[in-house]
Design a protein that fits this description.
This protein is 90% helix and 0% strand. It has 1 helix and no strands. The protein is rod-shaped and about 145 Å long. This is IF rod domain-containing protein.
Length: 93
Amino acid sequence: MRVDLENRCQSLTEELQFRKSIFEEEVREMRRRHEKRTVELDSGMTQDYKFQLAQALQDLRKQHEEQVSIYKEELGNTFQAKTEAVPQPVPAV
C-alpha cells in the first residue's frame, strides 16, 4: 500500500510539473502575442499621428499663404494710393 501511495504521489508530482510547464509556455505565448499586438498598435498610432501632423501642417501652410496673399494685395493697394496722392512736380517753363 505504501509503495502504491508513493508511486501515486510521484505520478501526481510529475503530472503537476508537466501541467506547470505547459501553463508557463502558454503564458509566454500570450505575452509574445500581447507584445506583438502592442507594437502593432503603437505603429498604427504613430502612422496616424504622422498623417494628422502632416495634414495640420498642410492646413497651416495654406492658411499662411492665403494671409500672405491678402497682405500683399493690401500692401500693393496702399502703396498705389500713397503714390497717387503724392503731388506731381510742376514742370519748369
